[in-house]
Amino acid sequence: MSLAQLPFQSPDPLLALIGEIGRDPRREKIDLSVGVYRDEAGRTPVMKAVKQAERLLIEQQGSKSYLGPEGDEEFVARLAPILFGSRAPAHARGLQTPGGTGALRLAADLLALRTDSRRIWLALPAWPNHLPVLAAAGLDVRTFEPFDPFSQTLRIDAMWDVLEEARPGDAVLLQGCCHNPTGVDPSAEAWAALASFLAERRLLPLIDVAYQGFGDGLEQDALALRQIVAAVPEAIIAYSCNKNFGLYRDRVGAMFVVAETAAGADRAMSNARTIARTSYSMPPDHGAAAVRLILSDPALSALWEEELDAMRARLQAVRRAVARHGSAGPLRLDPIGRQKGMFSLLPLPPDSIERLKRDHAIYVAPNGRINLAGMPLAEVGRLVEALAGVRETATA
Q1: Which of 69, 96, 85, 103 is nearest to 238 (CA)?
Q2: Strand partners, 240
Q3: Which of 158, 166, 194, 222 is the most exposed, having the fewest neighbouring CB atoms within 10 Å of its CB?
C-alpha cells in the first residue's frame, strides 16, 4: 500500500478556525473559539512569574542532557501538593508528560493494557479531543448525555441511570473542575455522591484537570478530586499546566496514578514509562523546568498565584457582565454567571454560528462553545446584541 492510498483525514474543525481567523482582515473580530486566556487588549501574555523563572533557567541550567521517559521528577514532586494538598495519597506516583493531552493519552494507553475491562464512560458534551484520544488507544468508549444545553443544567439523575450499567473495573472520565465545554460542574453534594458511587461500584476514575485555578481558586478547584481520590482504591489523573501557567506552546503536563498498594503503583508506573518511551521517548523540558522553579521559590510561587487570581477575576467579571443581560433574544444568558472556568456552551445552530462569523466577525467553536476567557469586557454588549440577532433570525 502506497502513502497515496491512505484515507484523507479532515482537519480538526476547531483548530482550522485559527487559520480562518488569522486571514480575516476585519479589525473588530472577536475570537471566542480556541481555549486560550486573553487580556483586555486581546493578548495572551507570558506570565511575569514564568518570565522570571525562564531568566533563572538560562542563568542556572548547566546541561540539556536527556531526562528520561519520566521527565523532570522534581517538577512532578512540586506539582503534587497543588493537586493533592499537603498530604498526598500513600501510593501516588507521577511522571511528566507533553501537556495534558499527552497525560490523557498515556492514561488511556495504560487503561488499555488491563485485562479485566477496556470500557470507559464519557459524559457528552466533552472536550472535542476526549473521544478521539480514548478511541485511538483502543478503549471501548460508552457515552451518555447528562447536560441540558437549553436549561444549562447538569442532570445528575441521568448520570446515575447510565452509570448503573457500569461493571466493576470500568473507568469513568471526569473533569475535575471548570468543565469544558459547558462550564457546569457538579455541586458539592453531587461530587460527594459520585465519590461514594465510584467506590461502591469499584469504578476507576480518570480525572482530567486542565483548568485548576480558573474556577474558584487553586485549593477550591482541587476539592472534588481530593474527595474522589480519598474514596476510591485507584485513580488516574491527567494534569495540564498549559492554562494556569500560560504555557500553551510548551506542552507541560503530568500523569499521576493512585493505587491501592505500593506494588500496584510501581507496576503502573513501570508500564507508563514503557509507553512513554515507545511513543514520545521523553517529554520536553523547558516549560516544566520553569514551573519547577516557580513552585520551588516562595516569591515566584506567590507572584504566579497573584497573576492567576487576576486572570480568574477578569474571567469572572466577563461572566457577570454577560449574565447581567439576562437574555439575548430567545437565548438565556443568566446561567453563564453561575458557571465556572473558561467556557460556556450555547445552544446555537450551525447557521447562527455562521452568521456570527459572517455578519459580526465573532468566531465561536462549531458546537456553540464560547471561550469567555478570550472575551474583552468592552465588547460584551456587542456580543449579546449579535447573539440576540442571530437567534431571533433562527427562530423566526
Answers
A1: 103
A2: 253
A3: 158
Tell how far CA 143 is from the center of its chain.
18
Is beta strand 343-345 parallel, antiparallel or unpaired with respect to 171-175? unpaired
Which active-site residues does the annotation give?
127, 208, 243
- Measure CA of the first residue to CA of the last residue in the chain; give whole Å: 53
Q: Are the CB atoms for 236 and 206 separated by under 8 Å?
A: yes
The grid coordinates listed for 131 are 473521544
Name residue 114's amino acid: R
Domain definitions of the chain by residue range: 12-45+311-395, 49-296
Mean pLDDT in each 10-residue stretch from start to end of the chain (396 residues)? 86 82 90 92 94 95 92 97 92 96 98 91 95 96 92 86 92 97 95 95 97 97 97 97 96 97 95 96 96 98 98 96 87 93 94 94 93 94 92 57
Measured CA distances, 32 to 36, 174, 277, 375 (Å): 9, 24, 36, 7
Count other Cβ atoms within 10 Å, centred on residue 226.
18
Which grid coordinates are listed for 72?
Answer: 523532570
Nearest to 297 by CA among 67, 55, 86, 46: 55
**Exposed, middle or buried: residue 273 (CB in 10 Å: 0-12, 13-18, 19+)?**
middle
Spatial contact of 386 and 362, defined as CB atoms under 8 Å apart: yes
What is residue 396's predicted lDDT score, i.e. its pLDDT? 47
The predicted pLDDT at position 16 comes to: 80
DSSP summary character for residue 166: P
Determine contact, residues 129/108, Cβ cutoff 8 Å.
no
Alpha-carbon gap, residue 361 to 36, rounded angstroms: 18
Contact between residue 256 and residue 223 where contact means Cβ atoms under 8 Å apart? no
Instruction: Give the pLDDT score at 393.
Output: 59
Residue in 232, 12, 222, 198 with CA at minimum distance from that of residue 101: 12
Question: Is the sign of the CA dihedral 320, 321, 326, 332 positive or negative?
Answer: negative
∠ Cα 41 248 315 (to 5°): 45
Total residue length of the chain: 396
CATH T-level fold of 49-296 = Aspartate Aminotransferase; domain 2 (3.40.640)
- The pTM score is 0.94
Cell of 344: 460556556
